[in-house]
Amino acid sequence: MARTAVPGRLTWRVATLTKVADETPTARTLTFDVPGWPGHLPGQHVDVRLTAEDGYSTQRSYSIAEPADGEHVVLTIQEVADGEVSPYLTRALPVGGQVELRGPVGGWFVWRDAEPAPVLLVAGGSGIVPLAAMLRARAAAGSRVPLRLLYSVRSPAERFYADELRGAATGGVDITYFYTREAPPDDPRGAKRIGLADLNTHAWPADFEPSCFVCGPTGFVETVADTLIALGHDPRRVRTERFGPSG
User: Fold this and answer.
1) Residue limits of the FAD-binding FR-type domain (predicted)?
2) pTM of the model
3) Across the strands, what pairs with 246?
4) What is the sign of the dihedral through the CA atoms of 114, 115, 116 and 122?
């Protein structure tokens, strides 16, 4: 998931690509080895900087897809049509190639496995990436905190981490998909945007006082957050992370 990069006083580190995995026809998961990486929390992101031979440089921000694991940083990147950075990262950067990373960034949109409250994750498209880090952190910690994931995506072919989420669902995580463009033939809901009825039926009730994390395009995030608050959720427990088109 890409955001507009935010300047900071963090250190740029050289990151070497060690592994690539396709998630969808236009999204790939990239694993980097980053010497000196200080670690991160689920939900944080990094700035990625590319520098050309003539000195021109540009940067974007991407969510971290997996919990901290030594000096490894895992990003899942959706290619943006006519983008300046994502096409290179998803199609051209070879294993062994290098970029610069700065981070981790962010302290509000994070989940810690010691938190006892039920967790509600609501993802729109590539907004699943930081939420997947939370899912994976929960599994790694052996946490039994109740967790529900509501994942809105255009079509089944565009789901990130499809096999892994299928396994998580059989392992006790409550996962519901909402399709906006093309739904499976056996889906009685059909293809439409997530709405009040969906959240009222599938989100945790407000009186459970869940920690809610909502991530996706700006319009999606605003709609979901406003609806959760209208359903009685404490605004202080609804944490949002949004993104929009980038160059």
Assistant:
1) 10-111
2) 0.92
3) none
4) negative
Give the residue carrying structure tokens 């899942």.
76
Complete domains list, the chain, with CATH = 2-104 (2.40.30.10), 119-243 (3.40.50.80)
**In whole angstroms, what is the distance from residue 149 CA to residue 173 CA?**
8
Amino acid in position 188: P
156: preceding bond cis by omega (within 30 degrees)? no
Q: How far apart are CA 113 and CA 135, in angstroms?
A: 10
Look up residue 187 and give its two tokens.
Answer: 């889906």
Q: Which helix (H) or strand (E) holds 118?
A: none
**Measured CA distances, 41 to 88, 108, 147, 188, 231 (Å):** 27, 10, 18, 37, 29
- pLDDT tens per residue across span 93-142: 999 999 999 999 999 999 998 999 999 999 999 999 999 999 999 999 99
Across the chain, where does the E strand assignment appear?
2-3, 12-24, 27-33, 45-51, 57-63, 72-78, 98-105, 119-124, 147-153, 174-179, 211-217, 238-243
Q: Which of 83-92, 161-170, 235-244 has the lowest mean pLDDT?
A: 161-170
Q: What integer best gives the mean pLDDT of the chain? A: 92
Q: Residue 3: its pLDDT value, please?
A: 52
